[in-house]
Specification:
single chain; about 400 residues; alpha/beta; Rossmann fold; six-stranded mixed β-sheet; four-stranded parallel β-sheet; 12 helices
Length: about 400
């Protein structure tokens, strides 16, 4: 069963009934899910997880769906944690790890958030949701919405990846394109949702997608036998993944699942040079970011000019002694080529940005060669066929090579 307790505003700490449909707090802050962790301690230990299904629902007590009948799943979660010895040696890192979210249903970590969000929407009687998306979240919510029988409406930038657009429409989503950024798409959804009776499921405007994504944090600890990396690098757009991992770390501390005195991983938010509002705010010592104008990057999933949860990302980074860095598109493409050729893993450009970030942080001395460094790849490279266009030699029939 779930030990869901209530919802709490991340800004003003006001509390709300978790069994009523909720968006934002009256102060405009996002709502976070809280659990009766004391009750969980008495009933669940890490050892009892062994033998449970290899999906994110193995952490059932710490997820927000009360009735198993409302769980909508495609088998998301428990993604592989890979060691990268050849690439680590090339970079100068003795223990380089990759958490590969590209093997999730729909090919990205967005499946976790969609599974939790759609499951809870079903439980609360919501029949139609709407959201802005750069692509992957839309594909995931469309797929899980189709499985649940919930209508999904999407608004996305005109240059959203074609594969994600195809995925969403194939699953029956009603999709619209806008000549603008995801923030422009969000404004359209906010303006239109009430008139059509849609529940607005934009990033952090509903409380539950973060709960699916926090399970990445639980999995990392479990897969490392309840130890932790020294640093976790995360590609940051809306920031829900890094917020969720930090939430999981705090919950595990309170549950007593981590060794006494263990240091939390230093969390690193990685953005693109062409869209780095959170990096800029971090460098300037600010608690919130300003909207980034004319955002542009090859890694479209992190092209978010202004994130609603920016203050939560900045807090998570600072609380763990982490940092925020921006990388060029050239570094991103270098990382994509290096991991593919040295480790045989074809990842998304957002994940590839992490390799350039790790290289730069190592050169600056922020990362040490003997540290355990985990990179969290958020999706499969195969979803971005437009990114790499190899120019291959053409042979005549019957030719020899």
């Amino acid at each position: 069963m779930s030990w869901l307790s209530h919802l709490e505003c991340a800004r003003c700490a006001a509390t709300f009934d978790a069994d009523r449909v909720q968006n934002l707090c009256h102060c405009g802050g996002p709502l976070l899910v809280r659990y009766d962790l004391k009750a969980v301690v008495a009933r669940l230990t890490p050892g009892r997880l062994a033998g449970r299904p290899a999906s994110m629902w193995r952490y059932r007590e710490l997820l927000p769906v009360r009735d198993d009948a409302n769980i909508v799943t495609l088998g998301e979660g428990m993604t592989p944690l890979l060691r990268l010895p050849r690439l680590g040696a090339a970079l100068g890192l003795a223990e380089l790890l990759l958490k590969d979210e590209g093997v999730n249903p729909t090919g990205t970590f967005k499946a976790r958030g969609a599974a939790a969000g759609i499951s809870r929407a079903k439980e609360l009687g919501i029949t139609a949701v709407a959201m802005p998306t750069n692509g992957n979240a839309g594909g995931a919510w469309a797929a899980y919405g189709a499985r649940a029988g919930i209508e999904v409406t999407l608004v996305m930038p005109l240059d959203a990846p074609a594969m994600s657009v195809l995925e969403a429409t194939a699953a029956g989503a009603r999709a619209y394109m806008v000549r603008g950024q995801i923030t422009d798409a969000g404004a359209i959804v906010a303006k239109s949702a009430g008139a059509h009776g849609w529940f607005e499921a934009a990033t952090l405007k509903e409380p539950y997608r973060i709960e699916g994504k926090k399970t990445m944090g639980y999995e990392i600890a479990e897969q490392l036998d309840w130890t932790l990396p020294d640093a976790i690098l995360y590609p940051t757009g809306g920031g829900v993944g890094i917020i969720g991992i930090y939430k999981a770390l705090l919950e595990m501390q309170e549950l007593g699942w981590l060794p006494d005195g263990v240091k939390l991983p230093r969390l690193v938010a990685v953005q693109a040079e062409g869209c780095q509002p959170i990096v800029k705010a971090f460098r300037e010592g600010k608690d919130v970011s300003e909207k980034w104008e004319n955002a542009a990057t090859v890694a479209q999933g992190i092209r978010v000019p202004k994130a609603l949860g920016d203050f939560l990302v900045l807090h998570a980074v600072r609380a763990t002694g982490g940092t925020c860095v921006a990388v060029s598109d050239e570094d991103t493409m270098w990382g994509l080529e290096r991991i593919s050729r040295l480790e045989g893993v074809f990842i998304c450009p957002e994940g590839a940005a992490l390799f350039g970030a790790a290289r730069n942080l190592l050169r600056e001395g922020w990362l040490q060669p003997d540290e355990r460094v985990l990179l969290l790849n958020t999706g499969a490279g195969i979803k971005y066929p437009e990114i790499l266009r190899p120019d291959l030699p053409l042979l005549d029939v019957g030719a020899a090579i």
